[in-house]
Here is the input.
Amino acid sequence: MTAAAAPADAAFICVRGLEKSFGAQPVYRGFDLDLPRGTFTTIFGPNGCGKSTLINMLSGITPFDGGSVRIGGNDLRAAKIGYVFQNYRDSLFPWMRAIENIEYPLRVRGVSKARRQARVEELIAAFEITLDLKRYPYEMSGGQQQLVAILRALVADPDVLFLDEPFSALDYEMTLYMRDKLQAVFLETGLTMVLVSHDLEEAVYLADRILLLSKRPTRLVELIAYETARPRTTAIMGDPAFVQTKQHALDLFRAEMAR
Amino acid sequence: MRWPQPASLVPLIGPVAFLALWQAVSASHLVRAVLLPSPVDTLGYLADALVHGTLATDALVTITRTLIAFAIGALLGVPLGVAFGSSERLYSSIEFLVDFFRSMPASALIPLFILFFGIADINKIAIAGFSVFLIVMFNSAYGVMNARKSRLLAAKVMGATPFQMFRDVLVFESLPQTFVGLRNGISTALVIVVVAEMFIGSDQGLGHRIIEGEQILHVTDMYASIIVAGLIGYALNMLFMLADKRLIHWNGK
Here is the structure.
């Protein structure tokens, strides 16, 4: 079990007193959160509650008004962040081939061409991915583009991988395939992952812990643990543990909506 | 032998109908032959003047002036546009000026340019270059200002420095709009050069040739020169469209 195997630094991602407002409207007020290293956390909550805002603040994309975010004991700015955007069309660079997109985070760090290529080949081999990386993103299917975006987020060995509803634009078949690829990446790398989802089934299926958020101003309703062993397959969706966890989350979610 | 597919002939209908109409009008003598020669005579003369006469030389002079003016305008306009576009405050400080000069017909400035640059070759190039510069600059600036922020954020989260974000993302984001400016710029350059050749003492160039054909009533030569000017404009536009498709292959996808 990943959570048990994780070292004692219980707060790899450590959020204290986070403050964020949009105009006069407070979204986060004194928000605290601790996420252990090597765990897969999914974030679920009502529409507009600031799920994406949260991971955008944790990853340094969106500035926050107050409080602190530390990753691995360091300031957020020192952390290496992998980020997979919801919209792959607007986050990949269409003027670069897939391979150049994947190599880009290494290029900005001044890694030599030979070492970049070696690293990409290593990634491709590790995750058994068959893609023609000479193609441009717009020549690929949505799933293939998002796979390129995930490889790009992984290539520079990030401390944390954030994913913002990464599969919401894909059809169901592709979504199932991508969830399993992502789970394989998680098992292979032991990376700390935080994924925002609007799909409760997905949030439970992928998670060690589900972070259930409230309506604005956003509070943590409950951090729900789900400890079924990996690799999980779609077969577990019929297990009592899965059904109960999902039902419990749904009950909390509906209570929150009714508030 | 197979006949070409009918669909491939459709684009020819317009030009053939146009030539037929021209032929019918000139054959009907509704317009005097001295004002409207037949298309056969005109095209025959055109071919002859290109090969044996000075029409090719005049065309080449016009093309050269157009390209030089375009090159000067583009080489100054793109970098300045990108620089101005990078800072919205900087751009808003010159926005009115750019919009004002861009909206002004460049031909209205011809006398002014005569005062400053005289009537030599440099005048025609200067005024055409000035127009190109304005068009290219404001398109490049808008390209940079309206670049989608999402890819810049992606580069930022991957650890790119501001300079890397500029070089690897912003420049590419702005290229489609910059190319719109370059295409408009080359058409404008041709327009201004031809007008300038008409009215600013020239002894060469298509504009000069057209106005001379009108004045000495050598209308066949005038028509032939007009057609050549049109063909040059069409060819330049096609060239830029092809370059656009190849260089900015991702546009609209």
Remarks:
- The CA atoms of residues 45 and 122 of chain B lie 31 Å apart.
- Chain B touches chain A at residues 148, 150-151, 153-161, 164, 168-169, 172, 175, 248-250, 253 (CB under 8 Å).
- The mean pLDDT of chain B is 91.
- DSSP finds ten helices and no strands in chain B.
